[in-house]
């Protein structure tokens, strides 16, 4: 019997592919609905996701699979920006430097041309090596500090290269990066994970304990030949009786958390400014997401569900999500009030048009690649392998990954188990 703990995107992919191979397995999921963070929430006639989760169909296999599961899934071209120096700049930053004020533009170009090329030991050095001091100070340092909530010189940068577009000093280039296009169901990413979970043997209940051959959860216990864990690794380690040589989770594993503030408003975004003839060099009204590196904003990214799909908001309304990263204590309600005030002052909407606010706290958002991570993770994996326990997914495997990678990882694990 194969037991999968967690019905997020990775766990569902493992199960989906195991079913195709007629394997004997079950999934145990503590939430009432499958999907993990790739779920959608219906609230006050709006549909919100757990922040922005988009399916990048770079893999032909994943694209075919998505179309098979959700035949009317949309293929969308990214509309993304950065708010910096009181202006909206097309994403990626390093390919649109001519949108900056002249001083910052020159500093960024000179810093890039005269940067020191070396093998970086940490994320701070990686940024300087790839972009130079000008771009680092203007965008990459403040944005990453805000996102990770951890010292940049204590983060290993190896995982970032596939996600960060290259520099273009010659002019504008929007079609850079791994997420130039993405697939998205009309009624939220949960439509995809619900289709993936259809007819899979999912038992709902929180896992309380895992021993050498059994998983104990709220509704009973089940013996396993193989256990695949996709829930956050710190939570799994709490379920096990660990020997002293296994590092303490609270010492070795670091992560950030996110407060997602979902907002519904009457009317279209930036609509009242457009009606007044407000002019900008860049019109961001159709944006999918916007990055905010500057420290005076508590949030690091703002996205719009309704700009991705009109079905995400009632007719005549729009919707956004706002991401606020934190470590440790949860932000209080004052940060939500401040967020509403700032978005209103930037022209996203008139303050009186706010129709609905739904805050969602995400305790595990991004695992941090600390200097100890690789070694400690190997110790943990080696120990668990003796009991046929395997780690998978962003949180279970403690790695930076996105939906497409998780689906392919699930396929690969299922194939290995059925060899």
Main sheet? 7 strands, mixed
Helix content: 25-40%
> How would you describe the shape?
globular
The helix-and-strand class reads alpha/beta
Mean pLDDT: 91
Query: Which band does the percent of strand residues land in?
Result: 15-25%
- Which CATH class of the domain at 2-39 and 188-247 and 371-417? Alpha Beta
Summarize this structure as a short list of keywords or feature phrases.
419 residues, alpha/beta, FAD/NAD(P)-binding domain, protoporphyrinogen ix oxidase, domain 3, seven-stranded mixed beta sheet, five-stranded parallel beta sheet, 13 helices
Summarize the structure in words:
With 419 residues, this protein is of the alpha/beta class. Helix content is 32%, strand content 23%. The model is unreliable at 274-278 (pLDDT under 50).
